[in-house]
Amino acid sequence: MITAIDTSVLIDVFGADARFGAASSEALRRCLNEGAVVACMAVWSETRVAFADDQSFAHAMRTLGVGYSGPSQEAALLAGAICKKYRAGGGPRDRVIADFLIGAHAATQCDRLLSRDRGYYRKHFSGLVIVDPSA
To answer: What gap in Å lies between CA 3 and CA 127, rounded to an integer?
Structure first.
């Protein structure tokens, strides 16, 4: 079982978020017990921002047990196609391509996505299994 992880869950865990930290940590533990947990380029980059340097970030990810998984060409194409459809349908520009890359990576290269999703991934990536620690 391969679980892609979303930035929101990592920030919950690393920041010990008062509202979601414990639930996100427990969901991550369950996913790690069931197989690999990986972060795509967008999640890796977004999460790195929260750390002082590359070394402390890399150490934290290793300690957590989260690996890196770059998006395939298939995932990149799917992200672009869904983003185009979203915008053509009048979707506001508050969603950036990173959101689509995260969903497409999980949909094409993983078995599920660990995310505090409020319906976005379910709507745009039907069939993607979501593990939502906030549910």
So the answer is: 14
Domain range enclosing 121:
2-131
H helix runs in the chain, sequence order: 7-14, 21-34, 41-48, 54-64, 73-88, 97-109, 120-124
Bridge partners (DSSP) listed for residue 16: none
Q: Could you tell me which residues are beta bridge partners of residue 3?
A: 37, 112
C-alpha 74/C-alpha 35 separation (Å) is 23
CA distances from 52 to 15, 22, 88 (A): 13, 23, 39
Look up the pTM and report it.
Answer: 0.90
How far apart, in Å, are the Cα atoms of 121 and each of 5, 22, 80, 95, 101?
12, 22, 15, 11, 11
The total number of structural domains in the chain stands at 1
Q: Give residue-wise pLDDT tens across range 105-118.
A: 999 999 999 999 77
The CATH number linked to 110 is 3.40.50.1010
